[in-house]
Amino acid sequence: MANRYENNKQDEYAYFLVKEDKPLLEFLLETVTHESHTKIKATLRGRGIKVDGKTVSQFDYPLKPGMKVAVSKRKRDGMQLKSRYVRLVYEDRYLVVIEKNVGILSMAAGHSSLNVKNVLNDYFHKSRQRCTAHVVHRLDRDTSGLMVYAKDMETEQILEHNWHDIVYDRRYVAVVSGEMEDDSGTITSWLKDNKAYITYSSPVDNGGKYAVTHFRTLARTTEHSLVEYSLETGRKNQIRVHSADMGHPVCGDVKYGNGDDPLHRLCLHAYVLCFRHPVTGERMEFETPIPATFKRLF
Prior knowledge:
This protein is α+β, with helices and mostly antiparallel strands.
C-alpha cells in the first residue's frame, strides 16, 4: 500500500509514495480514498497530477516503486465549459487547450457565429475572467481534435511567432479510402491555392509553399486504412491533399475525396498536441483517444 508523506497544509499538493508497479490511474483510485473517482479522473485530465515532479495526464502511465506522486488539492470545479462542440482539456492563466468537435469553425468567418472563439469568450465571460480567446492555429470546420488558444495578446504573439520551435509533436489520425500499400513514408510537394480556394499539389515548385507530411499505417482492411500523420509543415489542407496524392483520400472529404464516406463525416482528427509552454517553458503533452467510430471500421 502507498503511504502519504510530508503533507504540508500550506502546500498545494498531497504526496504519496509508490510501493509497487502500477498504472497511474489505478494507483490514484486505490490511494486517494478521500476523493470520488470522477474528481480523481478530472484532476488527472486537468493536469493536476505530478510524478517525480513532472506533470503527467496519461492514465496508464507506469509507476515504479520509489516514485513520488503529487495530487493537486486545488478545487477545479468552478464554472464548467458546457458545449456539445467544445471540450475543455486544460486551462491556466495564459492559455486553454480544447478538443473541437466536427461542425464548428475555429474562428468567425463571414456570417457564421458558431465558432470556438465565441464559445470560449462566452465561457470566459460567464466565469468572470477578464480575457479573450486568441486564435493561434486552425482546424477545418469538419476536422475534430486538439487546439490551443491564447488568453492574451502577449501569449498569442509568442505562440504565433515561435510555433515551429514551440510545438514539437503534432499528429493526426485519419480513415482513408482503400488499402494502404506502405507501412510508413513521407510525402512532399508544393501546395498552392487557386482562385476557387482549391489547393493544388505539384512535385516541382509552382510558386506555392513546400509541404512535408510523414505517415504511418496503423490498421488496414481491403476497403479502408487507419493512418497516423505527423506534420513537418502546417500548410492549409496539407493532409487532405497529400492523402489524395497517394491515391488514398481521407474518407468523407467532399473537396479532395472520391465519394467514399463510411462515417458521414470528414474522417480526420488531431489527436496529439505537444508543445513547450510559451510562458513557463513546461512541456505540455496532450493526447485524445482515436475516435471510436474510426476504430470500429477495423
